[in-house]
Design a protein that fits this description.
The protein is elongated and about 85 Å long. The protein is built from 7 helices and 4 strands, in the order H-H-H-H-H-H-E-E-E-H-E. Helix 1 (3-11) runs antiparallel to helix 2. It has a 4-stranded mixed beta sheet with strand order 3-2-1-4. By secondary structure, it is of the alpha+beta class. It starts with a helix and ends with a strand. It folds into 3 domains: 3-34, no CATH class; 42-85; 122-182, no CATH class.
């Protein structure tokens, strides 16, 4: 049972018994019963505003990046303080899905100067993610370049090959296969 629940039981118990007796029966320290939480200080509220502003502008930064930003702005804060301040609105850096791995060779982009002149000539797919309270949702869309139309899309909480294949299969059910299929 949480301290908040224990406080409620002590407060609403039989008034004939003393607060001391009620607290002892529940194993709650009287100081916990009388404790009134104080709000955040003005300085902490200012830090929270700065953190929110920085994360809005640079959502790839995690707790350590936000700590470094505050330090550059002459605020002496440590990692634990930043974690506590962003606890109410968790900060997750964006996953680095587009960064190539070690030893990969970049290939030339062959469709750079080639416009799509007819529907179903060039399709492309894109994967994006949507930040949620506890992680991310992944959205896969198949697009027709000429019509600039979303042919199909799939949404999932895991990023796996099945998600992409399902989006492609749905697009192929509704339209003829393209001449070129461009993917990341």
């Amino acid at each position: 049972m949480s301290v908040v629940q224990q406080r409620g039981l002590v407060a609403h118990a039989d008034p004939a018994s003393s607060v001391q007796t009620r607290c002892q029966a529940l194993g709650l320290a009287r100081s916990s019963f009388y404790y009134q939480p104080c709000g955040e200080s003005a300085y902490n509220l200012e830090l929270m505003r700065l953190l929110d502003e920085e994360f809005t502008n640079h959502d790839f930064k995690g707790v350590l990046g936000l700590r470094d930003h505050l330090r550059l702005a002459d605020h002496l804060v440590n990692e634990k303080r930043v974690r506590r301040l962003v606890r109410h609105e968790p900060v997750y850096p964006k996953p680095r899905l587009s960064v190539p791995g070690q030893g990969t060779t970049p290939y030339p982009y062959l469709l750079w100067d080639r416009p799509a002149t007819a529907p179903n000539e060039v399709w492309s797919t894109d994967i994006t993610y949507i930040p949620m309270a506890k992680g991310f949702l992944y959205l896969v869309a198949v697009l027709d370049w000429h019509a600039r139309y979303v042919l199909s899309w799939e949404l999932s909480n895991t990023l796996d090959v099945g998600l992409c294949l399902q989006a492609l299969a749905d697009a192929l059910r509704h339209a003829p296969a393209p001449h070129i299929f461009n993917s990341d």
